[in-house]
Amino acid sequence: LRKAGATVHAVLTAGGAPTLRDVRVQYNFALTDGAGINVIGSTLSLNSSTVSYNRCNGNGAGIALSSGAIATLEGCSLYNNAAGFDGPGTGGGAYLSTGSLLDALNTYFGSNTASNGGGAIGESGGSGLFIRSCTFSANAVNTQAPSPTYFGGAIWAAGPNTPVQISLSTFTSN
Q1: pTM of the model
Q2: What are the residue ranges of helices labelled H in the chain?
Q3: What element of type H or E holds 105?
Q4: How far apart are CA 80 and CA 86, in angstroms?
């Protein structure tokens, strides 16, 4: 998908490997996980794209990865996404469940919020997180949400066996 003029909500299931380039994924709502993009056991490449103003009651308002999903983000912006909009939620910009992988390069994460942890990125354990030359600014855990845990304004990596590699990245006011 390239240069889509409308907003996009995508659910990607096992077997697919789409590339989204120059698209906007905006103004979506989900009762559970992944209001903007929900990747389930599939592979996603997202290039020069924007994921913003998505809201969910669960995890990963912008992008949710589960069942071994893999996402590569390059030159993207994830901002103003809110997880746990009306309940517990982790990873406002992106969420990784067990066995998933997120590789982000030259990507901006700004003003994302979550009620349980990981304003920009939340991870539940046993996933891989690779951040290179990214900017994290003004991401937060919503301290007014029901049952908040207040962990990781920018990133919350919760479990054991979680490789997290961060290089050449900037964190400001998270």
Answers
A1: 0.91
A2: none
A3: strand 101-105
A4: 16
